[in-house]
Amino acid sequence: MIPPMTTLWQDLPRPIFTLAPMEDVTDTVFRRLVRSWAHRWGAPGPSVLFTEFTRIDSAIRSTPEKPDGRLRSTPEEAPLVVQVWGTNPAEFEEGAAALEAMGFAGIDINMGCPAWKVRKSGACSALIGTPSLAAELIAACRRGTSLPISVKTRTGITIAETDRWCRFLLDQGIDALVLHGRVADEMYDGWADWREIRRTVEIRDSLGSRAAVIGNGDVCSLDHALRLTEQTGVDGVMIGRGIFFDPLLFARNSPTPPPPWEDLPLQERVGYLVEHIQAYQQEWQGKRSFEVLKKFFRNYFLPHSPRETALLRRLYTLGSPAAVTELLEEACQAEPQDQSVPARKASISSQA
């Protein structure tokens, strides 16, 4: 077994809680907001953050002064791990050197995305079936950088092959293994099998590896994540879609946590949305479509509220941040004020 080279993953306090890399979701804006909202409530926020899913050749074309859009970041996001995908070892070696020069804290190789458009190229979860190429990509990163290397993957392609596949990856000397408890063909159907994740911890321990094992799949809260660390022995948990149901999820381990998301009045939830819209516009200046931001709108409204559902439908028809903000302000002015919830966010009117 090749020993891990660096200590980022070993040095992070346990349990590690991290936000999953998600395409068109975890851009530099959303990463900063998730962490700052946690800090606002007195919580530490995610232990480590990940960039969006990024092609390795984008790293080759990027420089610290002019990064690809998916590689944009700020010091507030540190430690920040860049997630890359591809199939060309030469590009991984060159790209790894470029990513180290850009100041990332680690490199994560995506070997788990189940989308057919990337699998058919031999990348991501297709690498589960081509372990020799997977090993070449890891080794190429090692040649290009001294940064810690992690792999995010699934338990198999059609059936779980945890013993073969995860043992193989750990034998490559990776610093961390992030395992989603489904096979690729399941996409996001059914439920993640955390028994396979627990089995990976057992394999890691039997090998005497120092690699961190991070579990992923169907985690809905920090309390849930903490229970899973206790039940499986993982070093930490990666949370993805759970953030859509509670944008303040990473604030929940504060000594003074916010009220449940559904208990916050509309004006306060809208205040978080307006903050998101304004930060997005300031960062991207039209270089990213406003339509991309619209996928976040539903996160800030209650699905069981007919009034809020109707408001959300109207928001989807609007084509500019100004129009959205104006409608939100009108909706909040019509909403009865609730003074029972302690505010940690300026009202919508003070942000205009």
TrEMBL record:
The active site is at residue 113. InterPro entries: Aldolase_TIM, DUS-like_FMN-bd, DUS_fam. Its EC number is 1.3.1.-. Keywords: Flavoprotein, FMN, Nucleotide-binding, Oxidoreductase, tRNA processing. FMN binds at residues 83, 152, 180, 240-241. Residues 19-301 form the DUS-like FMN-binding domain. Pfam families: Dus. GO terms for molecular function: flavin adenine dinucleotide binding; tRNA dihydrouridine synthase activity. Its cofactor is FMN. The keyword Flavoprotein applies. It comes from the Bacteria. The keyword tRNA processing applies. Catalyzes the synthesis of 5,6-dihydrouridine (D), a modified base found in the D-loop of most tRNAs, via the reduction of the C5-C6 double bond in target uridines. Belongs to the dus family. This is tRNA-dihydrouridine synthase. It comes from Alkalispirochaeta americana.
